[in-house]
Design a protein that fits this description.
Strand order of the largest sheet: 4-5-6-7-8-9
Distance between the termini: 12 Å
Helix content: under 10%
Number of strands: 9
Strand content: over 45%
Order of helices and strands: EEEEEEEEE
Length: 104
């Protein structure tokens, strides 16, 4: 879930780990490119707006970018495109694209 907050944007991510254990992460901040610590982790997140209506989230660990997402709300206002740019354990880059629809 993505919500506006007094500080910018707040993301809530509910996932299951490899053993099926539920996990919840809440993170976010101002859309100013500043690194914001993610509570309970050794990582930071920076939010930027590239100028095309998209929001970019850049995840860093020890100052090194490990993942980046570009989120774009499409013209219908109910669909979002998310492109993930990341790295495998052996350092190879990858890119995933997904389309998400708003659920009531």
């Amino acid at each position: 879930m993505i919500e506006a907050s007094h500080a910018g944007l707040q993301f809530t991510l509910d996932v299951d780990d490899a053993d099926g254990k539920p996990m919840r992460f809440v993170y976010g901040g101002a859309i100013d490119g500043g690194d914001v610590p993610i509570p309970g982790t050794a990582m930071t997140l920076a939010l930027t707006e590239p100028g095309d209506g998209s929001i970019e989230s850049t995840l860093k660990k020890a100052g090194v970018v490990i993942d980046r997402w570009t989120r774009t709300v499409l013209e219908d206002g109910a669909t979002m495109s998310i492109t993930q740019h990341g790295f495998t354990d052996d350092g190879e880059s990858f890119r995933n694209n997904g389309i998400y629809r708003r659920a009531s």
